[in-house]
Design goal:
Blueprint lengths: L1 H19 L4 E3 L11 E3 L4 E2 L16 E5 L8 H7 L1 E10 L3 E2 L3 H11 L3 E6 L6 H11 L9 E3 L15 H19 L4 E4 L1 H7 L9 E4 L5 H4 L7 E9 L7 E6 L3 H8 L4
Parallel strand pairs: 4-5, 5-7, 7-8, 8-9, 9-10, 10-11
Antiparallel strand pairs: 1-2, 3-11, 4-12, 5-6, 11-12
Amino acid sequence: MRKAVFLALMVIALVSCGRRGPQPQTVEPMAFADATAPSVIYPDFGDADPHPWEGRHPGHYPVHGLDVSRWQGPIDWRTAKASGVSFAFIKATEGGDFSDPLFQTHRRGAQDAGVPWGAYHYYYFCRPAAEQARWFIENVPKGADLPHVLDMEWTPHSKTCTLRPDGRTIRAEAQRFLSILEGHYGRRPIVYTTVDFFEDTEIGRLPKTEFWLRSVAGHPRDVYPKTIWRFWQYTGTGLVPGVQGKVDINTFNGSPEIWARWKAGAS
């Protein structure tokens, strides 16, 4: 009886490993160019609504992180880092007149815990790009560890702006926003987008731009064919120690060594 139970547990464990990818590992700090504490690669986060991944899935990537806003409430960043959070993109602004009330709290918390951070701006199509860029600069200090982010997606549920400009207009406005922030912060921002927006606007045609792609039900190479991506948002229902409730989880496209070089500003 004991032997049968033992064999059954071994089978379950092997199946689980095959489905989830490599098990969490601890690596020396310098692998992440950060001598403050060891880091976790291949973290084992939970998910309130997991997708049954087939083939290549998020578990095959070693470096994972979060994007957060006021909806997550206070975060225990040290606990989150210890569980495997290697970076955070924090919502700072949207449009030209709204700033996230928890941005500064999240930013300081991430900094104090040694979690590399960048800020993101949620774009509205009812204001000029230059005005929105100035608003972001007004609210986000210099000193981020990561490039900042321009979040461009359709806004059908907005109470104030549901405009859908043509792709040419959107690409021109995005280029203007990116150039203003690059001139101020010294590094070109990343563009975050969704499947429908990407297809409708051809935002992927922006030159010299890195992309952060949302795809919660398929690998980016299948959902965004032939698109080179830097980050992949693979769930919006993640469960991470130190974070209250559900949270978006993302993975970096590369090894810990590539992550360290990219974070430092090398391509």
